[in-house]
């Protein structure tokens, strides 16, 4: 124990230092500040469990340290025996029953909070949105057919019902401030909801390994006024979809200017200016035999408007003699 | 046990220094081969971990490529689980079980040798897959389809095929080993050693073996179907015909018992070490023994808590939350009994004891963070983030590896006849203790801040940067601890500075300390009649009471 002291001081100092850093920016010891009712109730359940587990933690670690301190040999010979106690039935019962009670309490709290976390509040004006996880981007389809990539636009204060799907591999939708995560599993439709209470933008990223660019698969939920949302899905989304597709899908591997990165330089390729050849690449992907990271069929579910938009965008902005200062999108 | 007619001492070329190890059917040598091979892969898997921590030390790092990161991550997990923890338990089981129950060898010595060589082969297959077309498998250690399927954009090349082949070989190895352990423990115990007088480590190994038999076939089936998908054009896990969630169920039906397959033997080691270094009997022998069985039973009923984010529905989620919480009860019973074992003891704080006490402290932390994960609405928030990476490393490293290091230091003199140096041992412990906590405490926070697991890089600053850097520094300190352990072995054996150990350097309780260190090929000349769970203490007392 004498030897244990310095490192205990170290651990305590470390804990204090991290607590200070974390408290300063409200991050690290609890999930990020919730901005949706389901996230708030998750937070409540988290605090309840934190309360119980902290108490148990202090009890067990406290007893451990106290016993080590009190009963350490202090130079007594190995041959000297401790108290030959073989057990105690009542104690066994106590430390069986008390954990059962604590776990029942935790379970009770979870079941009380569950409906408020799992079930979207009944609302006539809930917005159904389809979230499609792709290698390596999120695509959103709004009521009325508008689509966006990477950024989900929603109005403040409305219930948003997400149908989460995937055409390729498993992804996992997760915006920490707006509730938990749900996997996007090929062949299945999963559901999750949120109701953002404040305007702002909330970040998250794919939480299930989905391939080489798993780490690049970020998502932003842009919470804005009803008016801004309406105008976004009626006009802005359609006007900007070509650029969104380039920056959110193609540029990840081919670079912002198409000069190559993980994927090849395509800025001078005639394949990308012909609608039919580009369509084939987007729908089927490109095989590079034996090498991981072949081009996935990124546009497998794109509609005609999306295909037209990317062809137009590429012709106008990417297919041209190489400019100076091309950057890779790695 | 019936005497075997085979020559005890090998003849001719078989007695050569190397050849005698290649042809050995001696459980002690096979056990040592298992342990040595596992430690080699522990170091290799640890180097992979350091590569990952180097890549993640700062944002937008380019130390590893994204391709190789996913391979390194997959190989780290697969290596640590299948090539280190499960087989090292088989190694300890092999070495210790016959000695602890007073037997001459395992029930099937040749099958035992086959188990080891299959294990070595499985490991070599896995590690040679680095050089296969397309590199090693990169779909994570649980290899979820469709990322593990043979699509050009998923897992083309042969890394995934070698991964499957390796799992099959390792599964055969483990099944043969498990049958051997069960038969040995059931039939070959010393006279007087009833089930209630068996060392708790033997209880744990029996349960480990039964769990292996129950859980591994599900894994074999899952990876066989995956192999058929990859090579024979079936669609078991490819929608719309196939079902990916089916693979998740099959994998975790194996995967969760696997956690207990790995941790129960360590529980057994702790239950051996704590009493010896507390100079007391284990507190609540029956409670500790039966809680082992309780944990094993419930471990078969909790698998889908790994799948809470797959959208199974609240009905199933609720069942698996409750079963997962139930398993906390027998685990808690063990922790409290271990604490009570130290109560009013004469605690000898040698290296094995430090690791055992460290195990209690760290495993408790891993168990408590698991309660957050069992509560599925909270799991929806923290699952698949760095929080869970922190959680299972508190179980797998803070728990299992610390327990194993306790066991290594404790039984080292019995295995090799020399003591390891105490000062270096304590240095090993403190470096590992500080390094481990520094690595994994900050990862809880990273997960709560929103950092998903298995990302090869991140583009966040502030707290993400601080915590990741601290975690990487901790990884380096932990590696120094392992280096101190290797140095300790070097000094004791290569430089021959290790003090010769007598039969029983720790004044221990169980039969393996009755024979010489290291034991002769036939283990025991005579085995005393066992009258309690502590036959050696009984013997010491009887000797002390005799006149003269």
Explain what you see:
Chain A has 330 residues and is of the alpha+beta class. Chain A contains 6 helices and 10 strands. Chain A has helices spanning 4-24, 37-71, 89-118, 226-254, 275-284, 304-318, and strands spanning 127-134, 137-141, 147-149, 151-155, 160-165, 171-174, 181-184, 190-194, 200-205, 218-224. In chain A, the strands form 3 sheets. In chain A, strands 3-2-1-5-8 form a 5-stranded mixed sheet. In chain A, helix 2 (37-71) packs antiparallel against helix 3 and helix 4 crosses helix 6. The longest helix of chain A is centred in the first third of the chain and has 35 residues, at 37-71. Chain A is elongated. Mean pLDDT of chain A is 90; it is low at 326-330. In chain B, helix 3 packs across helix 7, helix 6 (200-231) packs parallel to helix 8 and helix 11 (351-374) runs antiparallel to helix 13. The radius of gyration of chain B is 23 Å and the shape is globular. Chain B starts with 18 loop residues before the first helix and ends with a helix. Helices cover 66% and strands 0% of the residues of chain B. Chain B has 548 residues and is an all-alpha fold. At the A-B interface, helix 1, helix 2, helix 3, strand 7 and strand 9 of A face helix 3, helix 7, helix 8, helix 9 and helix 10 of B.
Question: Number of helix segments of chain A?
Answer: 6
Largest interface: A-B, 109 and 106 residues
Beginning-to-end CA distance, first to last residue of chain A: 51 Å
Counting DSSP E segments of at least 2 residues, the number of strands of chain B comes to 0
Sheet/helix structural class of chain A = alpha+beta
Radius of gyration of chain B: 23 Å
Shape of chain A: elongated
Beta fraction of chain B: under 5%
Segments of chain B where pLDDT lies below 50 for 5+ residues?
A: 1-5
Mean pLDDT of chain B: 95
Q: What is the gyration radius of chain A calculated from CA atoms?
A: 27 Å
Secondary structure: number of strands of chain A: 10
Order of helices and strands of chain A, N to C? HHHEEEEEEEEEEHHH
Q: Characterize the largest beta sheet of chain A: strand count, sense, and whether it forms a barrel.
A: 5 strands, mixed
Strand content of chain A: 15-25%
Oligomer: heterodimer
> In order across it, which strands form the biggest sheet of chain A?
3-2-1-5-8
Structural class of chain B: mainly alpha
Indicate the overall shape of chain B: globular
Mean pLDDT of chain A: 90
For the termini of chain B, the CA-CA separation is 35 Å
């Amino acid at each position: 124990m004498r030897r244990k002291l310095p490192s205990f001081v170290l651990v305590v100092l470390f804990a204090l230092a991290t607590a200070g850093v974390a408290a300063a920016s409200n991050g690290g010891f609890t999930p990020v500040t919730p901005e949706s009712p389901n996230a708030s109730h998750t937070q409540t359940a988290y605090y309840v469990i934190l309360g119980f587990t902290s108490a148990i933690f202090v009890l067990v670690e406290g007893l451990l340290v106290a016993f080590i301190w009190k009963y350490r040999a202090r130079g007594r010979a190995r041959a000297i025996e401790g108290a030959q106690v073989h057990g105690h039935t009542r104690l066994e019962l106590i430390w069986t029953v008390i954990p059962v009670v604590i776990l029942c309490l935790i379970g009770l709290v979870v079941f009380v909070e569950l409906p408020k976390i799992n079930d979207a509040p009944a609302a006539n004006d809930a917005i159904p949105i389809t979230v499609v996880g792709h290698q390596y981007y999120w695509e959103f389809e709004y009521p009325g057919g508008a689509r966006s990539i990477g950024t989900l636009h929603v109005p403040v204060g409305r219930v948003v019902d997400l149908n989460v799907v995937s055409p390729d591999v498993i992804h996992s939708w997760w915006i920490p401030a707006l509730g938990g995560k749900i996997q996007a599993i090929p062949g299945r439709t999963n559901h999750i909801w949120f109701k953002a209470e404040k305007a702002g933008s909330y970040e998250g990223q794919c939480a299930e390994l989905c391939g080489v660019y798993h780490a690049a698969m970020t998502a932003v939920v842009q919470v804005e006024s009803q008016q801004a949302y309406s105008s976004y899905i009626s006009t802005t989304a359609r006007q900007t979809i070509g650029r969104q597709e380039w920056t959110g899908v193609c540029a990840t591997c081919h670079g912002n200017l198409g000069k190559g990165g993980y994927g090849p330089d395509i800025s001078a390729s005639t394949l990308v200016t012909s609608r039919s050849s580009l369509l084939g690449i987007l729908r089927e992907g490109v095989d590079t035999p034996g090498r991981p990271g072949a081009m996935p069929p990124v546009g497998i579910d794109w509609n005609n408007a999306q295909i037209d938009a990317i062809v137009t965008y590429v012709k106008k902005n990417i297919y041209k003699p190489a400019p100076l200062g091309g950057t890779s999108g790695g | 046990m019936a005497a075997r007619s085979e020559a005890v001492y090998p003849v001719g070329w078989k007695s050569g220094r190397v050849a005698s190890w290649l042809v050995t059917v001696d459980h002690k040598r096979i056990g040592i081969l298992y342990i040595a091979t596992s430690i080699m892969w522990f170091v290799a898997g640890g180097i992979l971990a350091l590569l990952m921590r180097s890549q993640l030390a700062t944002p937008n790092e380019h130390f590893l490529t994204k391709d190789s990161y996913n391979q390194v991550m997959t190989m780290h997990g697969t290596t640590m689980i299948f090539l280190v923890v499960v087989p090292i338990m088989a190694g300890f089981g092999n070495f210790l079980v016959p000695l602890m129950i007073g037997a001459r060898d395992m029930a099937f010595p040749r099958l035992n040798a086959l188990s080891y060589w299959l294990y070595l082969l499985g490991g070599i297959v896995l590690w040679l897959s680095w050089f296969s077309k397309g590199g090693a498998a990169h779909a994570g250690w649980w290899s979820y389809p469709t990322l593990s399927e043979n699509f050009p954009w998923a897992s083309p090349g042969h890394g995934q095929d070698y991964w499957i082949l390796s799992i099959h070989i390792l599964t055969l190895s483990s099944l043969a080993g498990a049958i051997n352990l069960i038969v040995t423990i059931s039939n070959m115990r010393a006279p007087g050693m009833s089930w209630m007088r068996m060392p708790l480590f033997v209880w744990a190994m029996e349960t480990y073996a039964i769990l292996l038999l129950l859980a591994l076939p599900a894994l074999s089936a899952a990876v066989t179907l995956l192999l058929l998908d990859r090579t024979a054009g079936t669609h078991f896990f490819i929608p719309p015909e196939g079902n990916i969630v089916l693979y998740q169920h099959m994998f975790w039906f194996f995967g969760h018992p696997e956690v207990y397959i790995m941790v129960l033997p360590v529980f057994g080691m702790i239950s051996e070490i704590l009493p010896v270094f507390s100079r007391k009997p284990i507190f609540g022998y029956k409670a500790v023994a039966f809680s082992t069985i309780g944990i094993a039973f419930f471990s078969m009923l909790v698998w889908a808590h790994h799948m809470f984010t797959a959208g199974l529905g609240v009905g199933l989620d609720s069942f698996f939350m409750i079963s997962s919480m139930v398993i906390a009860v027998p685990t808690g019973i063990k922790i409290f009994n271990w604490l009570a074992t130290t109560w009013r003891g004469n605690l000898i704080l040698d290296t094995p004891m430090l690791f055992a006490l460290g195990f209690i402290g760290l495993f408790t932390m891993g168990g408590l963070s698991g309660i957050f994960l069992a509560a599925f609405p909270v799991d929806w928030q923290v699952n698949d983030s760095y929080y869970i990476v922190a959680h299972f490393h508190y179980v797998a490293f803070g728990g299992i590896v610390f327990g194993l290091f306790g066991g290594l230091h404790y039984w080292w003199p019995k295995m090799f006849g020399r003591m390891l140096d105490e000062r270096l041992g304590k240095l090993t412990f403190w470096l590992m203790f500080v390094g481990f906590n520094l690595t994994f405490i900050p990862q809880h926070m990273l997960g709560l801040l929103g950092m998903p697991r298995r990302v090869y890089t991140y583009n966040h600053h502030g707290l993400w940067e601080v915590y990741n850097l601290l975690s990487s520094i901790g990884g380096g300190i932990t590696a120094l601890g392992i280096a101190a352990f290797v140095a300790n072995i070097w000094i004791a054996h290569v430089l021959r500075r290790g003090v010769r150990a007598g039969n029983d350097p720790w004044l221990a309780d169980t039969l393996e300390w009755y024979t010489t260190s290291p034991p002769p090929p036939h283990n025991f000349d005579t085995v005393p009649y066992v009258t309690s769970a502590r036959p050696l203490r009984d013997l010491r007392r009887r000797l002390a009471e005799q006149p003269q």
